[in-house]
Amino acid sequence: MAALIRLSSRPSALSAAASRVAARCFASASASQATPTSSSAPLFAFSASSGSAGRKDAEHRNVQWVFLGCPGVGKGTYASRLSVLLGVPHIATGDLVREELSSSGPLSLQLKEIVNQGKLVSDEIIISLLSKRLEAGEAKGESGFILDGFPRTTKQAEILEGVMDIDLVVNLKLREDVLLEKCLGRRICSQCGKNFNVASINVKGENGKPGISMDPLPPPPHCMTKLITRADDTEEVVKERLRIYYEKSQPVEDFYRSQGKLLEFDLPGGIPESWPKLLEALNLDDYEEKQSAAA
Ligand SMILES: [Zn+2]
Known about the structure:
Blueprint: H1 12-25, E1 64-69, H2 75-86, E2 90-92, H3 93-101, H4 108-116, H5 123-139, E3 145-148, H6 154-163, E4 168-173, H7 176-184, E5 186-189, E6 195-197, E7 201-203, E8 212-214, H8 221-224, E9 227-228, H9 235-258, E10 262-266, H10 271-281, H11 287-294
Parallel strand pairs: 1-3, 1-4, 2-3, 4-10
Antiparallel strand pairs: 5-6, 5-9, 7-8
Helix pairs in contact: 3-5
Bound molecules: zinc ion.
Residues 189, 191-192, 194, 223, 226 line the site of zinc ion (ZN).
Family: Belongs to the adenylate kinase family.
Subunit structure: Monomer.
Protein name: adenylate kinase
């Protein structure tokens, strides 16, 4: 077990969080302490906080992670891959909003009005949707989650903290020049709606930093002639989107950093280079082997 938890180079609070995570991943009885149950009343009724059972004993649930990262970094892709690996749902709040919009759920009319007026969906609505999703998941026997797109503000982070124990917050980062190139290379097939990327990135290393190369994700021949660029994927708009993101995300990152829960991860390239490195950073690099050995 000890070999699975390599924490010497990390700050101690993160080490504690990471060791709880690692211990949980391997359903170990050692090297972990149950998190005390909070007695503070939640602002919103998450099912996990209601009733005497309260928060699930950290030993008996799966990971409860948050993924942060700017638009275009590939956050959804990595969160989704990890959710499959760990057997927890990948819950993207953007999807929850879209699902509710296309349903006849209680919030759909309200949401349609907000979206039609170009307004931002309020914390209350997002939290209500998230709460509903987590309750439905718990009823189906889900244990744990990877959140994507939430929290976006410190207020949301505080609300979440009041009702759930977040184990780890992974902040995916990519050099801005690479990110810009990647966003400008995005194409959508106007016929089938699939996303592709025509950018072939090859940035040289400098000042001791390694270079980054990322292969394009070219479309199949039948989509090739139908590719379109999103109107808001221009250099000016992408740069402005990133500026707004950095400004808003900074306080959320600081919030989790001060709790020792933030894991900063610089993506070294595309998925082939980044995925194994990410697993390593999460102490999951031999997770698949361990799982099949235990089966
Ligand atoms: Zn197509």
